[in-house]
Design goal:
Blueprint lengths: L1 E3 L5 E7 L8 H19 L4 E5 L3 H9 L1 H13 L2 E7 L23 H17 L6 E6 L10 H25 L2 E6 L10 H11 L4 E6 H6 L4 H11 L3 E6 L1 E5 L5 H8 L10 E5 L2 E5 L2 H7 L8 E7 L9 E3 L1 H12 L8 E4 L15 H22 L3 E2 L2
Parallel strand pairs: 2-3, 2-14, 3-4, 4-5, 5-6, 6-7, 7-8, 8-14
Antiparallel strand pairs: 1-2, 1-15, 9-12, 9-13, 10-11, 10-12
Helix pairs in contact: 1-2, 1-12, 2-3, 2-4, 4-5, 5-6, 6-8
Length: 389
């Protein structure tokens, strides 16, 4: 979906396909047919954007077979789908029964992360619509926090510098500008937007910036205006933003609240949980740890890294951090010029929701994703953007 910003530029809205992950190229083509096109039809649009997730094997198949890449581009066009952004965070196995810490491998100290991201950039340059010259890729925020010493930090900096040089060469060769954004996430080396400033300043290249995920922003209790103003002041570009909402518990000391939270403690993904105390941010790596160990103070609100559907906050006594998303979006695209032109709804946890909240079958999932995109569209038009045909 495309929108005209009051400054005349085009803002793109997509939804991320890691919600129905596929490890192979055949699987990617099938998800376009079985999931993405039905979402488009429910929205009644001739064209919608998708933030494509290409696992290692699917990406490698496309890089090594130009005819397969042309076939994917044809399939996208035929089904009314366009790609201006890729999710390059998960490497493989995102649909496995247990993902947890494995999603952070390989990290930016491993040469394979550089190789994979370079492959994605080359593919995106070929998949961009004919009238679009800029693409974006989100990637993990360097590494999980431990162990990450000075030597590993230097390895990551060297890899990102090499990536920036490769993106320069790609732009010169193709006329397509691809930028990559580190996605701050609780528990990682770059946990907050503030943490991103120093390593990105060390790289010092405008093709490498930040992907602002509004669930992660909220989970770390970051104020959107403060965070985004700091990035702007530091000259760090917001490459893209993922529109997502975290799980919020206002009174985690109450038994009924803890019972409600326990329903979201599931085995597939990490749900880092945070609370803001007088001495700073405190947290655990997972929601179950927070509930069972007493490691997290419960005198103030808790937020958990669980991407809940944008249009459907959990039932009381829980809620979501949709207000943080609204504030962030107003700062991102509500000003005289957008800070980013690529927005991606990324609720990948539909099938990890408590059983009563999970969609039953493809049709209900498509309806839910379409409802999220409708909400995001309404937020954008409320900010003065005009939807384009």
């Amino acid at each position: 979906m495309r929108f005209r910003h009051p400054d005349g530029s085009t803002v793109h809205l997509a939804y991320c396909t890691n919600v129905h992950p596929a490890e192979t190229l055949d699987g990617v083509v099938a998800q376009l047919r079985d999931h993405c096109e039905p979402v488009r039809k429910r929205l009644g649009r001739d064209r919608i954007g998708i933030g494509l997730w290409l696992a290692k094997d699917a990406a490698r198949a496309l890089v090594t077979d130009p005819s397969a890449l042309r076939g994917l581009r044809t399939e996208l066009d035929r089904r009314g789908l366009e790609v201006v952004t890729l999710n390059g965070f998960p490497y493989e196995g995102f649909g496995d029964d247990e993902v947890k810490y494995r999603v952070y491998k390989p990290d930016w100290t491993d040469p394979e992360r550089l190789t994979h991201t370079t492959d994605l950039a080359r593919l995106l340059a070929s998949l961009l619509p004919d009238d679009v010259t800029e693409g974006t890729i989100s990637t993990l925020p360097l590494a999980w926090r431990t162990p990450f010493d000075a030597g590993r930090a230097e390895s990551a900096r060297t890899a990102l510098t090499a990536l920036a040089q490769r993106l320069d060469a790609l732009a010169e060769l193709t006329g397509r500008s691809i930028r990559v954004g580190l996605e701050p996430e609780p528990g990682c080396t770059v946990e907050t937007t503030a943490d991103a400033i120093a390593p990105l300043a060390a790289v010092g290249h405008d093709r490498i910036g930040v992907c602002v995920d509004t669930c992660h922003l909220a989970t770390s209790f970051e104020d959107p205006a403060t965070a985004l103003d700091a990035l702007t002041t530091a000259g760090v570009p917001v490459v893209k933003s993922q529109l997502s909402a975290a799980l919020h518990a206002e009174h985690p000391h109450l038994p009924e609240v803890r019972e409600a939270l326990a329903a979201f403690d599931e085995p597939r993904f990490l749900h880092q949980t945070r609370t803001l105390t007088a001495t700073g941010l405190r947290g655990t790596d997972d929601l179950g740890e927070a509930l069972s160990s007493g490691a997290l103070p419960d005198t103030g609100p808790w937020r958990a890294h669980f991407h809940v559907p944008l249009h459907a906050a959990p039932a009381a006594p829980l809620t979501s951090t949709l207000p943080v998303l609204r504030d962030a979006l107003a700062r991102l695209v509500g000003g005289p010029a957008p800070l980013t032109r690529h927005l991606e709804v990324e609720t990948y946890t539909w099938q990890a929701l408590p059983p009563a909240l999970r969609p039953r079958g493809r049709s209900q999932l498509a309806e839910g994703i379409a409802a999220e995109l409708t909400l995001a569209r309404d937020l954008l038009t409320d900010l003065g953007l005009k939807e384009l045909p």
